[in-house]
Amino acid sequence: MSLHYTKEHEWIRVEADIATVGITDFAQAQLGDVVFVEVPEAGRQVSKGSEAAVVESVKAASDVYAPVSGEIVEGNQALVDDSALVNSDPEGEGWFFRLRLSNPGELEGLMDADAYRSFCESQ
Amino acid sequence: MSDADRILPLDSWHRARGARMVPFAGYSMPIQYEGIIAEHRWTRQSAGLFDVSHMGQLIIAGAGAEKGLESLLPGDLAILKEGRLRYSLLLTEEAGILDDLMVTRRGDHFYMVVNGATKDADIEHLRERLPAGVVLDHMKEQALLALQGPKAVEALSRLAPGVDELSFMTGGAFRLGGISAWISRSGYTGEDGFEISVPAGVVADVADLIAGQPEVKPIGLGARDSLRLEAGLPLYGHDLDPATTPVEADLGFAISKRRRAEGGFPGWFRISKEMEQGTIRRRVGLAVLGRQPVREGAMVVDGEGNEVGRVTSGGFSPMLEAPIAMAYVPTASAEAGGTVTLAQRGKIFEARIVPMPFVPHRYHRKGAAK
Question: Domains of chain A by range and CATH?
């Protein structure tokens, strides 16, 4: 298993060729109370940087971009039913979607936990 | 925060309480403390303290003040009694709304509270048009707080005895912790509550006293916006602007009967005509189907996808736990119970037109049962 982070404040947990994607605790704190989440359907192909999910707080709507390319294998239905999970457990039960990596090489450009922590401190 | 954002007297007070500060109306202001939904619900069930010191507090004095103001506003100031507030509007000659405001008769002068983002333009507008001998003073040395919620009266009476005797839309001079304060029973949340004007130099002491009451928590701008939206109250610069008339905005109540009959204020011709013949569009409340909020800027579309209106405020109602919005729609389809179609970022939404307020007002009206 490996854990990666993006400058868009997403985390990616990779097990074999499956990546689980969510937004970080830093991101949920910035968003505030989340009231709506839309996750992608299984089978959809997403490419790195394309819009994959939507997260809306009381204040604003934000897109969640696919941090890596692949085929969606599952969107988190629990999140659709209870969007507050993004606030209460962003890096656990509040995951957004799982995808099957089509280009694992894309992971190389992402940050590890230490690099991400420094990145947040510089924000 | 950009360098241009001005600092309000309670800036460090907010920061010390964990507020997240954002630029608003040219000031750095607290958007939230613990979270918008929690703050929103706290205000509806207990009492919330808001810093609204960015708003403009004006004194209009002089022998011709009443007549001079009546020449610029559609409100009947002649019948406005001492210590009474009136909601009114600054209008263009074409009846466009320059600002919405509260005006109070206070002794030998009028006290006016205008929006923060428009106050400089308002002051210029008023000074250019008020007759000679009428003086406008911008009270830059005054701060303004609002205490809103069903327990506001309990909390504030402890500090400023007698405020419980005020009824909705009345005000008076009180002592609060040894400080002279002008307090009115008014606000922008739909709840019972008060607005409290005190000198900026002592506002931190006043805020400490009020926030020290067990019923009270400080509330940010985020909840202020969601509360006023639920209360169906328009926000200037979003739901109201110079291209919108009071009749279109469903603010006909701000056009006093005598003033409508007699005229003598900007936009009278168009307003009388619209009150008789109707307008082609009108501000309505929308209950959006589904869970996803529809925001300001979303389009109202007809069956062919043509834009026929615009959402001017939209968000998630913490009390209804559903998305709500205000929009301008064609009057022909503005009846409550009807449905409209909205488009936002390529997605279609259905919404039902509903009466406003979305959440009932709980003002403390004179003569009403306690």
Answer: 2-121 (2.40.50.100)
